[in-house]
Amino acid sequence: MRRLIVDAASPSAEAIGEAASAIARGDVVAVPTDTLYGLAADPFSADAVARVFAVKGREAARALPLIAADADQVAARIGALGPVASRLAAAFWPGPLTLLLAAPPALAAAVSGGTGRVGVRVPAHEVARAICRAAGRPLTATSANLSGEPASGDPDVVARSLGDRVGLLLDAGRTPGGPPSTIVDATGPAPRLVREGAIRWEEVLACAARA
Q1: What per-residue string of b and e applies to 124-158 under the rule 16 or more CB within 10 Å gives b?
Q2: Stated pTM of the model
Q3: pLDDT tens digit string along 20-42?
Q4: What is the pLDDT of residues 61-110, one digit of tens each?
Q5: Which of 63, 115, 195, 200 is the most buried (most CB within 10 A)?
């Protein structure tokens, strides 16, 4: 595993470019987010998505969450956000809100886990957003750990756990950790709570009511 040290607040263009090039080749890269380390790969490539599951050592039975550079990238590559989703994105992105949206046909089928929906958020971490920006698309962000092992915000743990299963680790130090993102289904006319996490459901409802 190649390990590149990056500044969490201002990552070098060279490191971000190397990560984006690896992803463009279909590789899987371990990257920091605002919670834990994740596995970044091209969700529009079935081969790259299959590699993510191979790295984790698990079958493609569950959907993969995505991260994006910003709301514009989500709209361009996943689909236009409706009024409620746009309001929630404006209020809580970057941050711990995952929106479930209709999965576009171009997305690798395994990403949605057969649900027809995909969860995406804009993380409050410059390195993660910069990689999505350089790659020109949202990326997978499932936790960087072997199936059955705990997820981690410590790059040393990620390196020991994954070894040569991934070719590149962007090391920005320990990530903040904390509660998982709140997941909201935004595919219908009204938001539906899937999982309450860092953002309280009452906050989401109050914001949606103003849409």
Answers
A1: bbbbbbbbbbbbebbbbbbbbbeeeeebbbebebb
A2: 0.96
A3: 999 999 999 999 999 999 999 99
A4: 789 999 999 999 999 999 999 999 999 999 999 999 999 999 999 999 99
A5: 63
